[in-house]
Amino acid sequence: MYNLHILCPHPPMASIAHSPTHMSLDLIHQHLGHPSIRVLHKMIKRGLVKGIVVHDLEDTKGFVCDACMQAKMTSAPFQSSHPCASRCLDHVHSDLCGEFEHPTVAGSVYFTTLIDDMSGMLWVSPMKHKSNFVNWFIKMDSMFLNQYRRHVGTLHTDNGGEYVNQCLCEYCSTSGILLELTIPHTPQQNGVAEWVNWTLTKCICAMMKD
Description:
Blueprint (H helix, E strand, L loop, with lengths): L21 E2 L1 H7 L5 H9 L7 E2 L11 H7 L18 E8 L11 E7 L5 E6 L4 H17 L5 E4 L8 H10 L2 E4 L9 H19 L1
Parallel strand pairs: 1-2, 3-6, 6-7
Antiparallel strand pairs: 3-4, 4-5
């Protein structure tokens, strides 16, 4: 029989609290959850970080944290993408809102809108199916032609299937209507219609709870 002596070094600790006394600015920035350099300076100067000496605290000119850049980036604000129309029906915004949990008495679970860019005039129609939009739009455009002697100039919408279909594209092409589509998954580019949807939805919810 032989005696076996096993030397077991202390296992490395995963806790971020287990840190050396002297740390670099980059390391303490990571350990404290990636605060901004301005906030980190204040914490250290006010004595909120104890037991740690940061040896390059004043050398922050070239400090760049790739993780912060990736995790904290935000999209730039969207600016107005077009000037206001100068004539009625020159530019019309549209969107379809739904599907709602509770249908109307007639069984509609969607509503769709047309908003004139110049006047702000709004037309709303409840719908049972998304596919009903095409027939409704053709009827509305016929009414515009009868009342105002002109078709819609530009129909500004998102890329939903109720707008991107052969029937609507053929009608717009025949009637000289420009179908202007937004970039997919970018509701900011259809802000006029989205804002109207939000306003109408809040009104509907308020009336249902009244």
